[in-house]
Design goal:
Structural class: alpha+beta
Largest sheet: 5 strands, antiparallel
């Protein structure tokens, strides 16, 4: 995910700023196609956004990103290559077990694999934050040339069950801590496991749901990855219907609630994971499959499939109730938390998602937004909302509803429409909404947007700083807002007012290493922004930028740049200035030294993302052209030595990268 377009986007009259993030994907979903399928099926994007209070974590088609919650700048990317590895489409011999597909094949529309995955492959977007760790489910995915809507409507029922990986990353460094499953240690006994949920916390332990063969299992483990127990919960009648499903769990201090997707809900004692109760419900099965284009296809023989009803929703635990929206049911069901006795059931055929609950009501959304009384399950209000294509957010006493055209704001108590919540500058369609810290985030099929009243956010951050000068989170947020406005000097001054964190002295600040890293990244951005602005002002006035004014800014950026993207950005600016100051030889040497260190780094320049090697090569060409014959001869010798070192070290990829970069001269 990265910001594209003008670094100073327009502010609407309502003071809502629209920051657009475009997923850096080789195979992006087609927005028109995704919108069509979403409107026909009621499915929302599988991608999620979560926060630990300091960083925004986003699941995307290309992996996972840790973002600055204000600027959406990338703090880190994580996720193994496993999730991008392809596998063959499911074998056709599986298909007749469900229906006579050949009969309907001519009537099926098709969609791209990227669109199919963005709407139907729930594990691809599964993510959770527990105990300072970010958990993901990573797996190979089908990438044929196109995917049939019929197979999409089955939500993977015709897929082979492919083992996946449960991975844990440090929430600060986003480095992999451990993994279980296909990429984990063989001695774990989980090589063939298919994880169906990210972990939930039960006391000082974690629990994760997985499938092994036909068995539904619970994995009990410590946050460091140490496995304590594997508990068999039961056997699945036809596990293929879970091929693209996620079954989120939920836990309190004394209760762990587990969904099976097979007509039963389990409650376990959190202390020892002993079974407390099992309750069943009537499954919504179908003999006729209705495709998104309206075609109805009969299931052959005795074939039965779960209706494509609820999307993934964790159980809600409220006081003495456990409220579930099972994926194989069309009802919202409340069970007694103590003994599993059914308390009430609300039939919700139009609902797809459980929004949340407050002290009095539980809210669900689909083509209608509905509220049900927690005490007896009676509907308290219902509002028709056409075009709902994302996850609804419950923010205080408001429901924020994303549609294909706008974000609606409903009163949670009455369902009354209050207003459109995005302002005139924002255009739909919108995606899954996250409301946090005064801002609203929209996670869409192919990107991320942030909406907020920047003036109010700035004032709140500065007020927090006045009350508590040591509130560095407020300081970082205010500095980030200054940076969005291009007020680079104000951002630097605000960051440098924090005691012991002035970049060069950052090593003294051992109290919050994460804050220091983030502050230094913002400092580098501000310093390079100042350099850019001063050069632009000089260009417009017909003069040259004053070298003595730019050099201190550049030297400071060099000293504090620690992140790979920052080091590359500083190197490129440094080379630009050296060429402008007549020091082409220094610029060439600097760029040559950076090839193998930063060549694979992905960098954003003017809204265009590319590998660092591309930007390095683009600058080396004019630097080489400015060298005299003697300087070129000396640097050719240096290039040959560096190339030989890469070959001798067995670094073939590094040698190839050098050759690619230097293709414009004899050395290449």
């Amino acid at each position: 995910v990265h910001l594209a377009g003008d670094p100073l986007p327009r502010v609407a009259a309502e003071h809502h700023r629209d920051r657009r993030g475009v997923v850096d994907a080789a195979e992006p979903p087609d927005r028109d196609e995704a919108l069509r399928v979403a409107l026909e099926t009621g499915r929302t994007p599988v991608w999620q956004a979560l926060t630990d209070g300091r960083t925004l974590f986003v699941a995307t088609p290309q992996g996972y990103s840790a973002l600055d919650p204000v600027t959406l700048s990338v703090r880190g990317r994580f996720g193994s290559e496993e999730r991008n590895r392809t596998r063959p489409p499911p074998p056709s011999m599986n298909l007749p077990r469900f229906m006579g597909l050949r009969r309907a094949r001519v009537e099926r529309p098709s969609m791209s694999a990227a669109t199919h995955r963005a709407l139907f492959d729930e594990p691809a977007g599964a993510m959770a934050i527990v105990n300072g760790r970010v958990f993901t489910i990573e797996q190979p995915h089908v990438r044929p040339s196109e995917v049939d809507d019929l197979e999409a409507a089955l939500t993977g029922a015709t897929d082979e069950l492919v083992p996946n990986v449960l991975a844990a990353y440090d929430a600060v460094t986003v480095k992999l801590l451990w993994s279980k499953g296909g990429a984990g240690p063989p001695e774990d006994g989980l090589i063939g496991a298919r994880f169906l949920s990210t972990p939930v916390r039960i006391g000082a332990r974690l629990a994760a749901l997985y499938q092994l063969g036909a068995d539904l299992m619970l994995l009990e483990l410590l946050p460091d990855g140490t496995i304590l127990r594997r508990i068999t919960l039961g056997s699945l009648a036809d596990a293929r219907t879970l091929a693209r499903r996620v079954l989120p769990m939920n836990a309190t201090e004394d209760t762990l609630c587990v969904q099976t997707g097979m007509g039963a809900i389990l409650a376990m004692n959190a202390g020892d994971l002993s079974l407390r109760w099992v309750s069943t419900y009537e499954r919504a099965l179908q003999r006729m499959l209705e495709l998104p284009n309206g075609v109805r296809v009969p299931l052959d023989g005795d074939g039965m499939l779960p209706a494509d009803g609820w999307l993934q929703n964790p159980p809600l635990i409220r006081d003495d109730l456990v409220i579930v929206a099972p994926p194989d049911s069309n009802s919202l069901i409340a069970f007694d938390r103590r003994d599993g006795r059914p308390r009430w059931e609300a039939h919700c055929p139009a609902a797809r998602q459980v929004v949340g609950a407050d002290a009095r009501r539980v809210y669900v959304a689909g083509s209608q937004i509905e509220a049900f009384d927690l005490a007896d399950g009676k509907r308290t209000w219902r509002e028709e909302c056409a075009g709902v294509i994302g996850r609804v957010a419950l923010a205080d006493d408001r429901l924020l509803v994303p549609t294909d055209a706008e974000i609606l704001v409903l009163d949670a108590a009455t369902g009354r429409r209050l207003r459109s919540g995005t302002g005139r500058s924002a255009a739909g369609p919108f995606g899954n909404l996250l409301s946090w810290n005064g801002a609203l985030y929209s996670v869409e099929w192919d990107g991320l947007r942030r909406f907020g009243d920047l003036t109010r956010e700035m004032q709140e951050a500065l007020d927090r700083l006045r009350r508590r000068p040591d509130d560095n989170d407020a300081r970082l947020k205010a500095a980030s807002l200054y940076a969005i406005r291009g007020a680079w000097r104000d951002a630097l001054d605000l960051l440098d007012e924090a005691a012991g964190t002035s970049g060069e002295d950052a090593s003294r600040n051992a109290t919050d290493a994460q804050w220091t890293r983030e502050a230094n990244r913002l400092r580098v951005r501000a310093l390079l922004g100042l350099i850019h602005d001063q050069r632009e002002q000089a260009r417009q006035s017909g003069a040259d930028a004053v070298q003595s004014e730019l050099e201190p800014l550049l030297e400071r950026a060099v000293q504090i740049a620690a992140h790979a993207e920052d080091r590359l950005a500083v190197t490129l600016v440094n080379a630009d200035l050296e060429c402008a100051w007549g020091r082409a030889a220094d610029a060439f040497d600097r760029l040559l030294s950076s090839v193998n260190e930063c060549g694979e780094v992905v960098i954003d320049e003017n809204g265009v993302r590319s590998r660092g090697v591309v930007d390095v090569a683009r600058r080396m060409t004019p630097a080489w052209a400015a060298l005299d014959d003697a300087a070129r001869a000396a640097r050719l010798d240096a290039v040959r030595r560096r190339f030989a070192e890469r070959i001798d070290a067995g670094d073939v990829a590094g040698a190839i990268m050098l050759a690619d970069v230097l293709g414009f001269c004899e050395a290449g």
